[in-house]
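Q: What would this complex look like in 3D?
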Amino acid sequence: MSPVATTPQQAVELALAAIKRYERPDLEQRLHQAKARLADDQVRLLVVGEFKQGKSMLVNGLVGAPVCPVSDDVATAVPTVVRHAEAPVVTVVRAEGRTEVPLEDLPKFASEEGNPGNRERVQHVEVGLPRPLLADGLVLVDTPGVGGLSSVHGAATMAALPSADAVLLVSDCSQEYTAPEIEFLKQAMAVCPNVACVLTKTDLYPEWRSIAERDRQHLVDAGIKAEVFTVSSTLRWHALQTGDQEVNTESGYPPLVTYLRKKVVAQADLLARRSTLHDVLTVIKQIVDSLRAEQTAQENPESVQQLIRELTEAEQRAAGLKERSARWQQTLSDGVADLNADVDYDLRDRMREIVREAEDALLAGDPQKIWDQFSVWAQQAVTSAVSANSVWATQRARWLAKKVAEHFDSDREQMLPALRVGTSDPMRSVPELSVRESDKFGIGSRLLTGLRGGYGGLLMFGLIGSVIGLTLINPISVGAALLLGGKGIVDERKRLTTKRQNDCKVALRKYVDDVSFHAGKDSRDMLRGLQRDLRDHFTTLAEQLKRSLQESIQAAQKSVKASQGDRDARLAEIKTELAALERVVKEVRA
Amino acid sequence: MITDEVRRVLLTAIDLYPQASEVLRRQLIRLDEPLRVAIAGKVKAGKSTLLNALVGEEIAPTDAGECTKVVTWYRDGPTPRIVQFPQGKSLPVVRRDGALEIALDGPADRLVVDWPSQSLRSTTLIDTPGIASLTTANSLRTTHFLSPEDSPSEADAVIYLMRHLHSTDANFLESFRDQGVARATAINTVAVISRADEIGGGRVDAMISARGIAARYRSDASLRGLCQNVVAVAGLLAFSGRSLRQNDFTALSALAALSREELDSLLLSADRFADGSVERRGLLTRFGVFGIRLAVTLIRQGVNEPSALASELVARSGLLELQKVLHTQFSERRHLLKARSALLALDGVLRSVGDSRLTGAVERILAGTHEFAELRLLSALRSGAVKVPDAELASRLLGDEGAHPLARLGLPRGAGPQEVGQAAFAALQRWQRHAENPMLTRRSADACRVLVRTCEGLLPRR
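A: Here is my prediction, written as structure tokens for the whole assembly.
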């Protein structure tokens, strides 16, 4: 036996080799799936925070390379994904596809300076680096801090949380936590297994210890259990360049790296290991079980009928597991239906609240004046409502999956299939998140509103125009109407305001409707996918169980007809096979 | 004079509405008081530090944690005195190491500190608790103080501190735009990029970066409508510069005498620098990493006098720039700003009593006073609501860079009346031409007429 512990990959290979002779494609399939899951096993670490807190410096310090652009002004424009690769490589990911670009072009896409306001329309930039820290599947995601945590970007980050394995909230030591940061942490804690706080720039602030102390107190007050790390990226960088270990220790990075290795990666590793081990053991156990059944039958031919009866009953039970009437199927379909209704209700409720609040605001004055701020607010409110809704839906879905698994097999710990969460972003399908653009409320449409507002004016100027020899619709009379529309005539002003209020209300409702429609579709899709995944997973398990039992029955029946000599030979065979499988199990468990 | 007109209207109003005489009388007194400038911003933006730098004495308590919890007024007075409101109780004046220590006695909603200081003579400075604080009550106090929903603001002008422009900052700035009559709040707000020395990790060129960022914000369309100007200031450095002591200088000179490697290694982090030395820790608290780096560099470059170092530090901190901006934007316009505050208050009273007898008089002052027309136009130009050709010249003419005729006409200091006359006449012709341009919209043409009127005022009287 090898003294080194087997990696999950090796375990799968061993099991595959061991079961090859039994010709069970269904079980092999399961092991192949486990292998595939191991292959793309990534640990996604989201680095988030307000802007100018040193997020990019932190990522650079962790990987020891200037991969994320750093600047005195706002620097990061698009999320940068840093993962392992054999050689350094930069890939720009757009909606249309992926393009590889030379390394030195990275700032052109990732930095605010090279790509202001993301005019390149990049979804994210991927950087591959050969680094031991990343080799275990750790993927660092540097998020742009533009607009702060409570903006549309922030909500998008929030929506990405359920798909992350860990979150680092970055905040510098110049001040204690602000309200938005604590709020963010609270939400992050609810959906993400590993949340840690990193306080940066300890080199610049002599008071960093007292700030860290206050922050810890704030965390305790808010009931957040998260580790706090204090680091200095400047020192780390200095240490990397000079190789000065002492400075490296001072930088505070080593504990953070250890945390990432030991806690984040190792935990994900442990999870992967456990689920693979579980797969391997169940597969082998099924084969061992049928071999054992055969062995019993060969040894005691007189009790074969009894055995066959028991096995048939078990097989029927296994078949029953596939039936719609099975308890887990019930739980699943009821649960998904309930969840659908709840999620939908939650979304509607949130949206209704926004619409109500918004209409109050619109009624309070002339919407023309507040439209700019209003539309920003509306977008923000709607985005955070959608992301909160989807986060909540994910939580509930996970809970449901657990319940179903419990029902499926209450005495054995069943592994869940990979759930379909976080793969899609509901906001993406909504046209640009923008009332103004979706409802043509940009410059052109402000004109349009102006025109509508100045309708009386248009007619009047049209008349004057015709008097002095101009036709009704011409640029000049439109311009004149605009002028009147902007000014408003005292008597008309009230009517125009009401009209604008109504227009805005319609625009708002349309926007909210649009978003609700897409978000609703998205969450229904997510739940349907979940239902299908769970159903397929458990049905396959039931199928495998049934097939194993069938094999056992066949083997037992065969043994009835066998001669004593055959029997002895077969018994010896079974013994060696069982021993071989036992060995595999032992090795895998090591 | 506009102040006199406003005073007259206020006096009439006091007679007419005895029920509101309290509020109005306060406005009347306020007309003769120094300009009230509030310093606002998010938590830990460096408000108190900047206040200390402006006054040149450590009278606003500062700390690593959230410190200012009550709106505090600092005004000139014959003797130091601290009064806590609403109780109206006097607190003991305690100074430790030159720093004023204020121990609140029970719940307070505001503090008034009288302090004999030249810097406070023409302006009363008001320190406010930070917004976006974890202690919501503190935040609310500030928001209510600066943009109360029921009554006009107590402050005439606002210095808004931000470290970087956050959405909270923009919201806050917006919340005090658009208040009733005068509607020109971009005029009385100056934004400051505070703690500018911490940008770029406190490198020696940090202030250059900070100025670049300030310039970017200045040209940012969304911010232009919200504030008059954006300046980068390193508050800590400014204060330390203004209060530089001989022993600071000695300590800094000693540092400058160290070898480059030794010093670089020391200044790698705050911890390394302060390690075990009380003196150095004190130096760090007073100057910050950037301040020490800068001071040492300056001493090495041959600044070998405490006073020379002090003035160099103050100059590099951006404080002078801020003071100049405050002077042109606030002090030169203080009559106007105060009149505006008073009219806002009066307007509120008129609205609440639902009487229109004085509305005409208020309207007359607002519409008839050319300075108000200028302010309104300047604000409209900045927010982009009105467009005129040669917008930059127009803003300057309206007093964007200072109300003095020379500044308005863009003439060098010391230009004679002859030159002023010529420049004013040229400007007059330019704007007359624009005003008659048929291609301009009516609002733009109106704007040009306001500018014509300004030019007429600048022409030397014969």
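A: To summarize the key features: The interface with chain B takes residues 50-52, 72-74, 147-148, 150-151, 174-180, 182, 201-208, 210-211, 214, 218, 232, 234-235, 238, 247, 250, 369, 373, 483, 486 of chain A (CB under 8 Å). Chain A has a mean pLDDT of 73.
Q: Very helpful, thank you.
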